[in-house]
């Protein structure tokens, strides 16, 4: 056994090995230690290896799923080694000591789950593959629980942002790749071959060319090849559901990098959970599929005004008609998750219950279609979605005729094919039923014949049917001519067989086996019918999800008094009465009111410097505007009285000195790396929020950096930007930057107490209130008073010297300083251009070089 185990262990690689032994999956050696610790089960030992006891732990097969779920959540991957022959067969093959053959039948990994119990209903489960070809990165992503597959291509420096958008549970990449992302599972580089990828996709979808699905680059196909090869590996050759791949055009979505996503807490709060995130505050979907679609929408808001308008039109339509919305949501709520049921069926892990879910879901979609199609003036998006809801009539009828109303999750007991579907099956069931009745009649007959009133006919899995009498009444049945044969003696009872009973029991067993086989055959037929219709079923699931998202957004808008944003081309951002959905919800819990604020950015006034006290609401204001942009471009209503938004191509959010120690960089370093990314990437169509950039270093350095960054954003990037800062000195930028204006969050000191008004006003902040906030926070009065005297001294010094920013007014503007440097370069460039290198003698060339060098240094 050890040799077999070690061979499988080797094959399992870095996965834990679940080694099937009878009714248990056993784990040995380090696997056992690791699993026992994670699962909190006892670690025992069995036998010896190399002179030491072998650590072992195990989990029962029937409850393996919940243990697997915990291991996967803890970041493990598991190889399942099953017995591939029965013990009887092994004995026949190799005698009584023969070892049952075992093989790894499947790998269970975070990205390749299909089991309902292991998946979160409201979250997509993405497996991604990435690789590089000729300087471009290809990414293939799929959710095998629903089969959706997407291919994209990007530059290597966009890889992190693309992966952040996908939020994959598992990522595979070629081993040794220069851009190998953290946490990627390394796979042999040869698996990422574009030819093989293309061939596999064609074979999976039975097409001669992929042109019908879109235009795919070699890079994308190479990534697809890597993805499919990995799926082959984990499924041991059995592929899950894969729908035709879709191309995600680069630039189709609002670009957001990882830091922006994290700081805006879109799908996850800073604490790591869904609670406190944007999606938690906006999700009113009634189906898991709707919630998954919403998460995708929020992760990749649109850039196409037409598409955004179509989504908004549908939300608006459902917003206006509350009755229809409620009705629609009630129907959707009762519908099963057909996308995932389909995924399981196609992966070969479907159950009768999954088929029942498909029947109910597709039937529900058909009813919804009938109801909606009768309405006048349907929104464009809905008219496009509606056809996908119908068209499954024949399949729904087949499933309805074939299945019982509530089919079980297990197939081995049968009983899921409905009566009337198959005459022969009904006959078999009748035979079994008759035999059961005959057995009941036999019991009465035997009682009468033997005169033992306590005689019973019972059944168990070992003996089958038998007659049981109390020990003291057994004499009569033990008589040689009684017609009963003794089978077993128990404490206080005796068990017998009888010919008539045996005959009836055989009839039941035989009919049972036949009907089970008949049901099994019907199950396979039904699965085939579903598999054939897989693309159409997936389209129905997607349409239902999209309708649920829109209805949920309409519901959320009605609940919170949200409005429909207007998306325009010119780079403006006019938000009246904007609110932060998460902060507002948190305040509502404590019955506090959120103070709505306006934001009015335009090409003439595109950078707002926002000052004001700590806790005054600066960060909240910055973020709420970013979130409103994000929601609007995702096609949602927004928490504002009105919003006019110039389409944003990239969204950046930076919070000064946020903690990112996990990456081993100092907070200030992180802040600067992130700021550098903005300065190099933000365009005139971008929207940037910068929250206290520069605060992570000394005052002078911080102020200098904040100053230069604000100037560069104003002069070079020319994007819309909200810049929160504590440096009063920055206010002087308003003197030189004409599209920059000063704002502050208001506060008042009233009877010595600080009152934060959370209200945005024009003009610079008058003072910091830092000490007042410290007092509010409970810093001891003695310390605050000492700070006050230090502050007085500092302020006196500032008044005398002109303060930290003294003299900065004479500094040439960022662009002007840059231009001066450019000029020098231009003179040199001009001279270089004029040189005919071939006409120079070596001596002349050397002289020229000296001259140029002299000029460059002199300038
Ligand atoms: N518009 C608002 N209406 C009501 N309460 C608000 C508003 N904005 C912020 N708050 C409350 O004030 C708290 C602090 O807000 P926020 O973090 O935005 O302040 P800040 O000015 O960025 O502070 P700091 O400078 O210390 O980072 C929030 O957690 C919230 O409870």
UniProtKB/TrEMBL annotation:
Q: Which InterPro entries match?
A: DNA_mismatch_repair_MutS, DNA_mismatch_repair_MutS-lik_N, DNA_mismatch_repair_MutS/MSH, DNA_mismatch_repair_MutS_C, DNA_mismatch_repair_MutS_clamp, DNA_mismatch_repair_MutS_core, DNA_mismatch_repair_MutS_N, DNA_mismatch_repair_MutS_sf
* Residue ranges of every copy of the DNA mismatch repair proteins mutS family domain listed in the record: 686-702
Quick one: which residues bind ATP?
612-619
Q: Keyword Mitochondrion on this protein?
A: no
Top-rank taxon, per record = Bacteria
| Keywords linked to the UniProt accession | ATP-binding, DNA damage, DNA repair, DNA-binding, Nucleotide-binding
Keyword check for ATP-binding, yes or no. Answer: yes
Q: Which NCBIfam families match?
A: mutS1 (TIGR01070), PRK05399.1 (NF003810)
Q: What does this protein do?
A: This protein is involved in the repair of mismatches in DNA. It is possible that it carries out the mismatch recognition step. This protein has a weak ATPase activity.
Q: Which PANTHER family match?
A: DNA MISMATCH REPAIR PROTEIN MSH1, MITOCHONDRIAL, DNA MISMATCH REPAIR PROTEIN MUTS FAMILY MEMBER
Q: Which family does it belong to?
A: Belongs to the DNA mismatch repair MutS family.
What is the name listed in the Swiss-Prot or TrEMBL entry for this protein? Answer: DNA mismatch repair protein MutS
Q: Organism source for this protein?
A: Novosphingobium rhizovicinum
